[in-house]
Amino acid sequence: SDCKKTKDEL
Amino acid sequence: MNAFRLVGDLCHLAAIVLLLLKIWKSRSVAGLSGKSQILFGLVFVTRYLDLVTNFVSPYNTIMKVFFLSSSIATVYLIYTKFKATYDGNHDTFRMEFLLIPCALLAIVVNHEFSPMEILWTFSIYLEAVAILPQLFMISKTGEAETITSHYLFALGSYRGLYIMNWLYRYYYENNFDVIAVVAGIVQTVLYCDFFYLYITKVLQGKKLQLPA
């Protein structure tokens, strides 16, 4: 799912 | 990376530095909730477990190391070095009332039922409410030192800026994480009352006094 892509956040 | 998230991270960094400065210069942790700092430490430990396994960027790694070490150092300063100035009588919020619901919710509501994902989700939920013991303590003592209110303003602003970052990423990168966004909104809303007091009082040069 596209939510994985915000795992670059602190 | 976008400006909202960068400024947000810098606000977060500033908050932590402000707190350490306050403790170090005043040689005191008066007015600080050790419980909130323990919860923040737990947030970073459970969220940054992938520090060594998942490299994102030098910036990301450096910030994670700084947040982890500074939060652990703050807990250490409160509970050992400056323990004599710790106001335990006013820091009475029951942490289990936050830890247990966040843990249960992380098990039920998450993106993937795996240990890392559940711990990450737990850290997101816990961060949303970790400031409650500190706000509760201020409501009990009825006031906060000016530098402590600057700390809280920077800390509250960081997640508010992250909400702008999520809006930006939703529209321009088609990235969206409903768990982080909902928890981030809850977290920012919890500061609203404080933001009002900060803007109407502290910025007018007055001390942060809660209406008795």
Give an overview in words.
- The complex is a heterodimer of chains A (10) and B (212).
- With 10 residues, chain A is largely without helices or strands.
- Chain A is 0% helix and 0% strand.
- The radius of gyration of chain A is 6 Å and the shape is rod-shaped.
- The N and C termini of chain A lie far apart (19 Å).
- Chain B is an all-alpha fold and 212 residues long.
- Chain B has one domain (3-204).
- In chain B, 70% of the residues lie in helices and 2% in strands.
- Chain B has nine helices and two strands.
- In chain B, strands 1-2 form a two-stranded antiparallel sheet.
- In chain B, helix 1 runs parallel beside helix 3 and helix 2 (34-47) packs antiparallel against helix 3.
- At the A-B interface, loops of A face helix 1, helix 3, helix 7 and helix 8 of B.
Q: How would you describe this structure in keywords?
A:
B: 212 residues; two-stranded antiparallel ribbon; 9 helices; 2% strand; globular; protein transport (chain B); membrane (chain B)
Entry summary:
The complex is a heterodimer of chains A (10) and B (212). Chain A is mostly loops and 10 residues long.
